[in-house]
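Entry 12.
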Amino acid sequence: MKEIIRLETISEVHHFLGLDKPKHPMISLLRIGKVLRDLAMDDIKYVLGLYQISLKDNCPYTIINYGRNSYDFQEGTMVFTAPEQILSFKKAETVEEDNGWSLVFHPNLIRKAELGNKISRFTFFDYASNEALHLSDDERQTVTELAEKIEREYSTNLDAHSQTLIISNLELLLNYCVRFYDRQFYFLER
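Predicted 3D structure (tokens):
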């Protein structure tokens, strides 16, 4: 049986991945290439107590097993996972330069915000979801810019407006993903 690693906080994720301390206790943007290239994750299952939004761009892992589903994590693909889901990975044969990222955030970040009440409406976080999001270059640029805006916000001196701006940009990112999913299914149905 594969080892199961439980990671409940942003600090635990950073420690597990060998990263510096996080700049914010509730949210972090992880650069996939820098993090996963040398990490042996083939024999590990892990459970995050966090939400995770990942964009693949030459990721060193090609298959993500999430629940009963396997996702072919190809270039320009997004995958969304909710807290307490079991994940595992299969390593790619070769890896080029990776520009992908994962945005991880603790449920407490949004708990008291309106987004906390709405999060269940983003059905792509559902365990039973079986469709990864495939992005065009323009869509990839849009979501990456929003993720980087969130990173800039939590990396600066936090003030009374930081939490609102982080959550607003996170919700905007998720709303764009809804739009892109709708576009994806619209073209599949035609």
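Annotation: The helical segments are 10-17, 32-36, 107-110, 114-118, 137-155, 162-189. The chain has a mean pLDDT of 83.
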